[in-house]
Design goal:
The structure holds two protein chains of two kinds. By secondary structure, chain A is mainly alpha-helical. Chain A has 14 helices and no strands. The chains are: A mainly alpha, B alpha/beta.
Chain lengths: 276, 255
Amino acid sequence: MPQEAKAARSSRTGGNKNSLYLLYNLVSKEFKLRYRRSVLGVVWSMLNPLLMMVVMVLIFSNIFRFQFDMYPFAIYLILGQTIFAIFQDGTNGALASIIEAAPLIKKIHVSKIVFPTEKVIFAIVNFGFSLIAVVIVLVFFGMLPSWKVVLVPVLIALLAVFTLGVAYLVSALSVFFRDVIHLWGVLMTVWFYFTPIFWPYDALANNGIAWVYTLIQFNPMYHFVSAFRQMVTGIPLPTDAGLLVELGLCTVFAVITFAVGLFTFKKLEKKFILYI
Amino acid sequence: MTNEPQAMAGHPASEPIVIVNDVSVIFNIANEKVQSLKEYFIKIARRELMFKEFVAVDDVSFTVDRGDVFGLVGTNGSGKSTLLKVIAGVLEPSKGTCTVHGTISPLIELGAGFDMELTARENIYLNGALLGFSRRFLDEHIDEIIDFAELHDFMEMPLKNYSSGMVARIAFAIATVTDPDLLIVDEVLSVGDFLFQQKCERRIQTMIASGTTVLIVSHDISQIKRLCNRALWIEKSRFKMIGDAQEVCEAYENQ
């Protein structure tokens, strides 16, 4: 299509400033719909991870008796869980976001990338609320966060970029192959178990399954999770690399994934309308 | 494109706002039905992927001038809506080009941009944002939109409790709150009671008077005759006739 037409249209429907306003509207819609008619409303965003943590603490430290003595196991759990939720909720939400927006995409010239982006932003806002749960747990165990906690926004920004990359990729692919939606559910479960969220990472090395131990070094989420724990508690585990190394690795993972995701999305988005 | 400076100099009547140039839209039907990986590989193995083509619009060219009220007629499945999608910038033509000078406001199909769980007011903001309006613009014009839709008492009610006519009122009110260069109307006017239909037509007339070009698709031939000055008839994906709305409509009715 000629440049002129594109320019004229973008002034109407895709202008940067108004795209932001559209994102804001979509996120606020999501919140309204999720908590409409529930008594506790947005408190659930905070209560959910807290209750999950209580269940996991009961199961893993009392029944399976995991050995973990660096700091309270509950703190280890909730930190891993809340940051992993950004990735999990963001990509799960984005997965069918294009297909769900089909009635709109078929009718209006609207920038398609806002739909997966909105889901990732929603996951991050939700993470903000679940931080209240983290604070409650820290207060309960009388633990003060380390000064390194100031680096958390940097980490979350990197995780957002990483999650966006994956979100663009899966949302674009699921338009063409609905299998991706089913496959992603399984993949997400595998990914969750292969990230040290409820089990201590060094347990693997001591159990003699060294190849899994090595494999997990290549799991980007491992680095995000362990960097987050280090930043909040200030206590590195024996297996942890230094914080700067972790941040460096996270940056590399985030940039590469984002580039691949965005490229795939842009490449495929013109054909979306034929498949939705 | 080259006409634009001339138009500035004072020939608004002959300035084309939509230029459709040799546009063809071809759907790959075999490809379209493949929605799982298994099917995909089976089809690749059988070499079925490339062959079944369906030409929805076949080499159509026309221009719409600024200030025109342009009607599109044709029987069901003749390619009217596909053509409209190309003009709205939603669908890329397989061949040819489509150029639009200026802003477009599409009248969205009933409920397409709406979320039935949200209230009418929330939907106005959401839909306005989808159409590319800024927050300030919507804050300034919200009363105007509500006034036009005449639904003051129902603004805080979820849209799922609305009748389809009431939804259409809101959709129309939002889409026509600005004076876009090009307004696309796709069968929307057939909903709503006759009073509101008349009101919509009056609103379109005022927009026309203020320089908006209107593109209408309708099966209501009398409506095309009443509103339009020019019309295009496409039949079985192909260009059939273009010209004065009265003449095209008569030819279409007497085919």
